[in-house]
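## tool: complex_structure
## caller: assistant
## args:
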Amino acid sequence: MSQFLMPSLGADMESAILMEWLVKKGDKVTKGQVIAEIETSKGVIEIEVFEDGIIEELLVEEETECIVGTPLAIINSDSKETKNTKKETEKNTDIKEEVSKNNEIIEEVVETKNIQIDKEQKERLKVSPAARKKADELGIDLSKITTKDGEIHLAQIESSLSFNSDVPTKKEVKTVEEKIDKKDSMRQAIAAAMSLSNAEIPHYYLETSINMTPALNYLEELNKQRSVEDRILPVALLIRAVVLALQDVPQLNGFWIDNSHQISEDIHPGIAIALRKGGLMTPALLDAKRLNLSETMENLGDLISRTRGGKLRSSEMTKQTITITNLGDLGVQSVFGVIYPPQLAVVGLGAIIDFPWAQDDTLCVRKVMKATIAGDHRATDGRVGASFLDKLNKYLQNPKELL
Amino acid sequence: MTKDAIKSTIIKAILEIAPDIEEDEIELNENIQRSLEIDSFDFLKILTQIDRETGVSVPEVDYAKVDTIENMAEYILGHL
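## result:
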């Protein structure tokens, strides 16, 4: 028997609204199954269970705001679970605890840096969920309601309605304010994580120029046989090559936690995706080493559209083992990343441009891309990064191996 | 299909695929990807949509010829 808690999906997340249950009491669930949808500052997220079992009880109702760590459901775990998977779950929980510890550190940074915002958020939390919902429905501005103890409950909303017929209906204004608030909280989270990274992680940076002509020619031939919608983009080929190179040089894939280097067996690259309205998210392309080239393209396309428009899963928000950033679309030649703690490295991919290239005693023009790695010097030395870039280059010179 | 009809098909496709873009941000002679922050994935979706609606599929070697809405409309008109 175990409790399923409201997960923390980032340093900026204090609470989220449980929007919809996708399971009911008595349902059998399997590890990784999406059981509910929650709404956070990053949009609607699908949350998954970490173990097999049966839903014993749902503890909160839909449309309830819950702070991180609130028990949401009780799950009766499968007793037939093998020792192996149990171990894995424990390991995962360990890492999760570490990650959430790390998030706490980040939160501390936010707190000290932004006491004002924190204070506002705490004040906001004193509104009971039912009251907030009612106020939302009625378009009541909560800041206009004052109570003795500073807490707002349903009763206060109702009384404010009966005694104050001229309560301003500020629903529209409020939505706009909320939007700014969400964008701001994402900014704060990025600020906190990046400050922590620069303060704690001694980065080293390496760069190499890669001749992309063989890979692009190969892709062109491949795409000729495909319809427009099934075409493979260079970025998918690049991510596939990064994943293969990481299998050869696993030291860069994992975490630095409690002064120790933890290499992750699974490869879940976080893909930096810019949001057009501003901000940045790096959801994980899960289990990338199990994806062939077409699947990498397909899953990447799906991940990008869900990041921009819709629903990410909780595992995609928390499992990243390395980050890949690609600013090539905007013509940038080199990008040197800032490592997202507790990860170990960021791979940076620049634009592919026509460049003079010396080959076999002749000077020619080739499609050239600058690939970089920013590594955590506590965990690895430059030689590891160099060996990674070398492998990456080798895969891209033999694109057939990337299928 | 007239060139103007093709242009509105392209604009419609852009607005559908990147709903946060406002119609008045779109300039006919600006690079579609850079001026509207359309990444390669969205650009591919736009071409897929154009292929569906006009039957013209732009091969990768011709991507440079469809960089602006004006050029894209011209290209599609020539390949209908």
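## assistant note: The CA atoms of residues 134 and 154 of chain A lie 7 Å apart. The domain at 2-104 of chain A is CATH 2.40.50.100 (OB fold (Dihydrolipoamide Acetyltransferase, E2P)). Handing back to user.
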